Structures are given as structure tokens and as C-alpha cells.
Amino acid sequence: MERKGLDCVVLNQGYACVNGRVLEHEAAGNALLAELYRNHIADWPKFFKMDTLSKAGFVASELLFKEIGDNRHEGDEFVQNRAIVLFGSTASLCADRNYQETIQDKDNYYPSPALFVYTLPNIVTGEIAIRNHYRGETSFYVLEEPDAAQMAFHLSCAFQDGATDSILAGWVDSTQNDDFQSFMTLIQKEDAADAGWLAGQLQLMINNLNK
Amino acid sequence: MARVIRCIADNVVSPLGTDSRSNYDSVKAGRSGLARYESMGNITTPFVLSRVDRKVIDGLCGKLGIEGNYTFFEKFLLCSSVQAVRDSGIDASSDRVIFIVSTTKGNVSLLGAPQEGMEQERVLLAKAAREVTEYFGNPNNPIVVCNACISGVCAQIEAMRALRSGRYDYAVVIGADEQSPFIISGFLSFKAISDEPCRPFDKDRKGLNLGECAATVVLEASDVKKNGWELVCGAIRNDANHISGPSRTGEGSYLALMEVLKECRRDELAFVNVHGTATAYNDEMESIALYRAGLIEVPVTGLKGYYGHTMGAAGIMESILSMYAVRDNTVLATRGYNEQGTTWPVNVKSELRECKGSEFIKLLSGFGGSNAALLYRYVE
Amino acid sequence: MEELILKLKQEIIEVLNLEDIKPEDIDNDAPLFGEGLGLDSIDALELIVLMEKNYGIKLQDPAKGKEIFKSINVMADYIQKNRTR
To answer: Among B133, B256, B311, B313, which is disulfide-ready with B235 (CB 3.0 to 4.6 Å)?
Structure first.
């Protein structure tokens, strides 16, 4: 019997796709993320404070959980057995550039704490952890490019933590405010046992990043 | 049996020395790299920083034969890793060796001050890491751990896992950060930087100091027990509370501590080397986490008074100095501490102390609600 | 004063990305922090930047911010008295 493929969400500045179904939308760029937020999420105003990287990761994770009917957590109960492991190649470059603008000019030097905090790419893992009450591992790795085999290897390694039995895994990149790519998927321990299969699944998602 | 992971070589390059031994001796003697700066670039607020002399790094590169078109950050990574790899005796060009780089901001200073003849894409962390793997002729794709201030501990955990998986036999784990106006202005905007040498856990603590350091551990996987420093286990946990403020209950640090305590032989635990940044919230949070984990009586030591917060290097350098301290039966003095300033009275002292035991825990926490701990054990 | 209060509200909404909130939604006497607008510690730091950038008021001690950011009225009053631009 053919093994069921992983559920996934793929987003970029002009594209939103949940398990192969393209979501209809009007906006593009950063406005697309806001449109998806308003149409599908709508109950987390902190969204508007996030940088593009965090928005892209957050929206993708929300659409994924909605699709699979994940109950996330019960009330205030914190979930410790789910990790968040994300990868990217440009890390916080978009936020870095935005923050640099606030300090570049001697006569207009007003460093912004709200921009500075996003110059750490792992903030997106924190945003998702806060939203979902996850107190498990959160990690952000920077690779040269989305490499399915390399990602599958490090994801399977993450299951060596005895407390981790599932991982919200994905790719997030943003170089400009209106330019981003992300995918998000949920991996169970048994999915990672077969690294070749996992890499194949990730490759399908990578192939759609630039759709 | 799971493969045993051992540290077989180490190096620290900082204002206090260019190898681990000289760094340890300097700290034991009470020397600090912290100095006051009145301004830097567009920054006009005074701050205290531990900064590496660029000439020392250039001289070291010359001595080590590191030539090429490198940024300061890349030279920093190289002059630490070249020494550690040389001391380890491993063949770093083998595909059985994985390189893991720990940094928060890498070459970010290129954004504000582009360098002639230096391609702007070096601002991408994996491109900078590629310079290192290419230097050593290592064929594997580089990976950079970018988990804010806990990156150095996370990088060692990732190395441990990669080695236990069986795919690699050695891991070269390098951490470094350059302190440019980018990072300093950001922490200033957070009102987190002190204009005096920091005072970890003290009641009058005013905030952190930043610092520069490059540090490397070379880890080896083997199927048999050998004597030396064993990286036993590690854990990363999130507060799920706030993206910049530490948890009021120390949740993530507590959970990370509880995970590594599963493997810890409590009568062998010499000390906990904490984060101890000297911000009001961090030190308070750590005291709560230590209390909750039942570690309030265990000697605690923090190194920020000597080095400042060295970000990507912190988890690695502070682990290395802890190894030297355990072997020396010493709990290093927490420079800057004077009077208890946290709700829970952590066992911290401003003087050197003797200790027993063969294990230590390294604890870190950082932005993004991230926390990490690891356990090292010396095997006779 | 009315003019300053309206301008201040618009500035706060913009720098803190308070999407879907209009100036008239912010009560002049209601606390800015805690319940209501859902502001946090980073927002407080960003308001310190706003005070300096738009009104030339430098706040070194973030604790001082707590008093000033009590409400829009308190904040506007402080700005009125201390502004240098």
C-alpha cells in the first residue's frame, strides 16, 4: 500500500497552496499574508507586529493545523512533545535590512527595538510556540539552499530528543518585505525513520516554493 | 549502546587569549576584557564591551597561514577552528566530518559598511560558513545554527545528534560573533546594555555587556568508552511566553534543566555554568529555574563579567572554560557579583571556590523564548 | 491639546502596527498597557523611540516610561510640557 504523503502548506508572495489545493486570493506580497490571516485566522492581532519572515511561517503553520484539524492544545495546557524545527537560507536578512535603515543615517538615527527583535530568525519559531503553547524544542538552521536530504537528516536527528514525538518542520525565507517563500509540514517520529522517504516528501514541497 | 561523544580538542580566541588555556588562566587570575566606549559609528550612548583587537586577529591569521579574502567574522571563525582542528589531529577534509557554525549575526556589518572586493552575499550565514568548509576542503554542505543567544549550546547538541546518527565521526563546532553597531545599537534600544562592567545576579545589576569571542570544540564519536570529556546529553526548550522577555516562571530553562538532570549524577555535579547576563529579567528567571529544578544549592558561576555576552560563541566558550575549571577542581568567580539580587538565593560567589565532581551543566537562554542546557562529564 | 492627542493616537497606531484600531477606539484615560490594546514590553520601548523621534524627548530610564505611558492624556500632557520639537 502506498504510504500517505505528508500534509503541507506552501506559500510565496503570489501563491498559497494547502495539500495541493491553491487558495484563491487577490493580494500579493505582504498583503497576501494579511489577506490569508483575515480570511483564515483572524484571532491573533500580534500577527500585524511580526516581520515578513514570521508572518510567512506563522500563516503557513496556521493553515496547516487548520487543514489537518490539529487540536494544538486543550485550554491552557502546554504541549511539550512537539518541536518546531525550521530552515532557511536568507534567515532574517529582510528584517536586518529594515533595522539597518533605522541606524544607517547619523541624522535620522532611531534604532527600533520592534524591528531589532526580528533580526533573529528563530523568533518565528518562538511566535509559533507562543501561539500553540508548545514548550518543546525550537530550532532554526541556516542552509545555503533548500536541500531535502540535508533537511531530512537534521529532522531525523531532532527525534533523538526523547521528549519529541512530532515536529512542525518547514522552510522560511524572506529577502524583501514583499518577497517570501515558505512551506510547513508536520512530521511524526515514524515519518523520520525513513530518511529517504522524508527527503522525497520535502523535495515535493521545495519544488513548489517558487510556483 | 549509543555512540559516546567526546570533546577531543578545543580553542578560545578572545581579548583574554588566543587558546583555551590562556583564557582559563586569565579568568582564574580575575582579568576581564570589558572596557568602556563612549561612542561607535552613529552610537553616542556610552557602553561597555569586550572587543578583540583586529591586529591580534590579523597577526594570528598570519601565524596560522590563513590567507584569503575574508571578513573579520570569517577570520575569527577560522583562527579558532584552525587551531582546534590542528590540535585534534583529524582530517577535516573527510566527508565523515561535519562542520557546524553557531552565530547570531555573522557578517551583518557588511549591510552598513560594505567592503570593497567583498561580495555582499557573504551576509548570508551559510555563505560565510561555506568559506570555512572550503578552507578545510570539507565536502559537506555547511549548516549554521541560528537560535539567538543559545546557538552555541544548540550547535553542540546538533553535533552530538549528527554523530550519534552514525553518519559522521567528527564534528567541528565553531561559534563566533562580531560586535558591530548593528548589534550594539539594538541592545541599546532594548535598554539592556550597562555602561558599567556587568554585575550578574547582583542586586544592583544594570544590564549586560556585549563581547567578542570565537570558540571551537572538536567532537568525536566512538563505540567504546574512553577517558576524557564526554558530551552526555542536551536539551532545547521554549518558554512559549514572549519573543524577547524571559518567562516569569523560568519555564523553558527549567524544562531543559530537568531533561539533562535525567542523566546527571547529582553527587558528581561540580557546578552549573549559567547564562548570567546581568539583565534584571534574565538572572531572576534563571534563579527561578534553578530553584524549581532543585539546583538552588549547587554552585553557580557566570562568565559575562570577563567576556561580556559573546552570543554565538557563548555556549561553546563557556563550556570549554567549564571543562578546564572542573579539571582544576575550581568554581570560577562570578566577576561583578556582590550581593544577592534574585528572589531565589542562587549559590553564586565573587571569589574562586574549590569544588568536587566530574560533571557540569551549561545553561543558556535567549530571544525567541529559547532555552538550552547540556551536560558534560569527565571520564577518568 | 485635542490636536496633539489625535496626532499621538495616529502615531501610536502606526508605529505599533495596531491594525484594525482607529483613533476613536482609544480611550484618552484608559491604561495603554495591560488589557485593552494588548501592548507589551517591546511596544513600551518603541514608544520611547517615538517620544524621541517625533518630540525630541529622551527617556533614559525605561521605568519612567511606565508613568508616562499610563494613558493617552498623561502621555500628551508630558509631551506638551517637555517637547523640544
So the answer is: B256
